[in-house]
């Protein structure tokens, strides 16, 4: 017997050691599997990041060409941030592939249309007989190259650049002796008109020095070449400003579109999750009600208390399990909802910031569009708005309204004798003096050149002459000094009251006629149309 017991213990120890060895091996395998899984997850995440970067670069490359494609790529980027949602992104890939093919076909069609357009332009250039022979040969070779279709935009752009080069060479040849052309009075008048126009336009701060240089050139001894260059420079600056405004508007709209797309996706996902949760909760409620009904039946049909106790324990355990699952489902639903709300809050905040920034820019531009850039007074557009407003008040409340037009006497002599920059400073000083002479309810605007318009509500017939003469005397007493020479600058003023059943235009014409009378009667005076 002792021998048998020893053998039995020996066998058990051997089996125990074998089991320990197997468990150790399983732990090693499990640890290796975890490491391998972590490597797979890391590799998967790295590849996912690379894929997201690729989609981002693709979005930037395609941005603005197709709005539907922009939306699809934005939605794809959103799905790609969560590996679990990649399956949901697969249908988007099919749509994106379709849109990319469609965009490619559209681009190729446009390229072909552009090639035909270049052919038409080059045929027109070939009709210019005065072009140098060498240039004519280059144009002929260029036309032959246009016979081949374009496959990419990058083949089209060099052709456009070459076409511009042909234009430049022809223009150089045509205007090589432009400085020798006779400058006619009409050219001088055009230069002065351009100088006057650019003084009314608000340019960016970094452009103002260049504008001042152009203005000095236009008001000096102008040549035909300088006049053409000035027109070209002004057009280039205006087109640049228009392009900047367009880009800013497009950037805002693209950002707004991306944000709305993300918010829409979050709302859709939240709605889908809520539907799934409602279905699961409905199933759990049915299961809970079933357990409660079963418990009721057991109580009704019970005869053995011990058996009832056992059965109720089973039912209550199932009921607790169902309630726990329902609670976990509700917590998960709340977590998803909080994340969705937070995501939408971030996107809406970002969208709000973009909108506020864009609104501020629009407000600044609107403000600039209503100001005269030289005098910083209201311009004609602002004057027309204020005139309509004051006229409505005049009609509604039956209050008096006066229109006064002022003109600086002999202003042309200031420009001719002391230069246009001195004339500009004179306008600025007088504009500020006019503004400071009026009450807050009264209004002054630069009408054009050296003319200003005053709107004077709630002024009686007895006080209008005193008010306007006080303004005239204030300007006359300003101690102007040009090139160490004291100069007195005076105003002529014509005024008219808006009469009952009279339009603003009719009252304005009477005020203008009164100004003309003030000029003819010797200037430096106020004439009121009664």
UniProtKB/TrEMBL annotation:
Entry-linked Pfam families: DGCcoil, GGDEF
SUPFAM superfamilies attached to this UniProt entry: Nucleotide cyclase (SSF55073)
InterPro entries: DGCcoil (IPR048516), Diguanylate_Cyclase (IPR050469), GGDEF_dom (IPR000160), Nucleotide_cyclase (IPR029787), Rev_trsase/Diguanyl_cyclase (IPR043128)
E.C. code: 2.7.7.65
Single GO biological process annotation from the record: cell adhesion involved in single-species biofilm formation
Catalysed transformations (reactions): 2 GTP = 3',3'-c-di-GMP + 2 diphosphate
Ranges for domain GGDEF: 399-530
Cofactor(s), names only, from the UniProt record: Mg(2+)
NCBIfam families on file: GGDEF
PANTHER family registered for this protein in UniProt: DIGUANYLATE CYCLASE DGCM-RELATED, REGULATORY COMPONENTS OF SENSORY TRANSDUCTION SYSTEM
Name the UniProt record assigns to this protein: diguanylate cyclase
Organism: Shewanella frigidimarina (strain NCIMB 400)
Top-level taxonomy: Bacteria, Pseudomonadati, Pseudomonadota, Gammaproteobacteria, Alteromonadales
